[in-house]
Structures are given as C-alpha cells and as structure tokens.
Amino acid sequence: MKWKTMAAMSLTALALAGCYSGVRVPDPKLSARDAEFLALAPKAQISSEFDRYLVDYKTNEPVGSIVVDSRAHFLYYVMPGGKAIRYGVATGQEAMGWTGRAYVGAMQEWPRWIPPKDMLERWPHLQPTADAGGLPGGPDNPLGSRALYLYQNGKDSLYRIHGTNEPEKIGQAVSSGCIRMRDIDAIDLYSRVKVGTQVVVL
After folding, report:
1. Active-site residue 19, yes or no?
2. Where exactly are the structural domains of the chain?
3. Catalytic residue among 19, 73, 125, 178
4. What residues have CB less than 8 Å from 107, skipping those under 6 apart?
5. Structural element, H or E, at residue 140
6. 162 catalytic per annotation
7. Mind listing the pLDDT tens digit for each residue in 70-120?
8. What architecture (CATH level 2) is domain 22-201?
9. How far apart are CA 131 and CA 115, in angstroms?
10. Spatial distance between the Cα atoms of 199 and 16, rounded to a whole number of angstroms
C-alpha cells in the first residue's frame, strides 16, 4: 500500500512540474522611485502559473521580439537558444481584443494616463480626468510602472503594453485591448526592450 501512495505522489509531482515547467526569473533591480511607488501600489495574489519564468519556446520570431498569446494570457520575450521569458498578462475583452504586428514606438516610466476617446464615450465620468491633462504617473495610475507604446506604419496604434493598478485581473480578458502586466513584470520587460522592438499579438 505504501508503494502505491509513493507512486501516486510521484505522478502528482510530475504533473505539477509539467504545469509549471521553467525557471523563475529573479525580480529586476529597482530604482528608489520604483521601490517607493511599488510599496504603495495595489497588491494581489495571482496563480503561480502567471509568475515570471524562463521557459522553452519555439517560434519563428527573432530573438528580442515580443509575442503575446492573448487566449492563454501569456507574453513571451524571445531569448536565444529556443528560450523565452514568459509573463502572465491580462488581455482585451473579446469584443475589444486586438491582434496583429506592431513595434515599440515609444517607452515611458510611470507614465501619465489620459483616458482615450472611446473610453470617454463609455465612461463619461472620466471626462474631468481628461480635461485636467490626465492622471500623473504613480501607484494608482491605470498604466502602472511602465508603458510600451505600440506603433504601426509610423503611427501610434493607441494600444499599449503596460503595468496595472488591478493586478488581481492578470490571467483574464478584461482590458480595452491593451496588454496589462504586473508592475514588477512591466519593469523587467521594459529593461529588456528598446524602441523598435517587434511585437506580435496572436
């Protein structure tokens, strides 16, 4: 009976290893401002599946590019040797989801948030925020710690990869089309990319 129990435990361990294959990537080094703002930012427990991992990843996209799997709620930063850093993300609601190719046209740390026109049409109560020039960067800002501005054909697509003040929604389809990350993950990704980085949203 004892060997059956041990066998069952071994199978369970193998199953879990399959679900969470990969190596956890350490947190990035933080500036004084990052540490101060992150200490004040909203906190949430999320499934460990959406933590930051170095994983095996096969793709035809070049090293240094970003691939977003909207359905699975993962963002991959392509590394050499058939590897990628995988981050859990929140993606667009089905009716607002965006797919296609773009590139990072601009980057900002703790960016100011100005409600876009389509959002103001849905939620007029945000108009005073827009009239005031937007919300300054900080721990309560919807864009969170970092923003990567996605461009197509030299023009701002109005879609972003950014941090979030709602970390509990990582792993869900809840946004207006942007890709949301935990603030610490947005900081990590930001440190790896540059203007011109290619982005594919599946």
Report:
1. no
2. 22-201
3. 178
4. 146, 147, 148, 149, 190, 193, 194, 195
5. none
6. yes
7. 999 999 999 999 999 999 999 987 645 678 999 999 999 999 988 777 666
8. Beta Barrel (2.40)
9. 10
10. 31
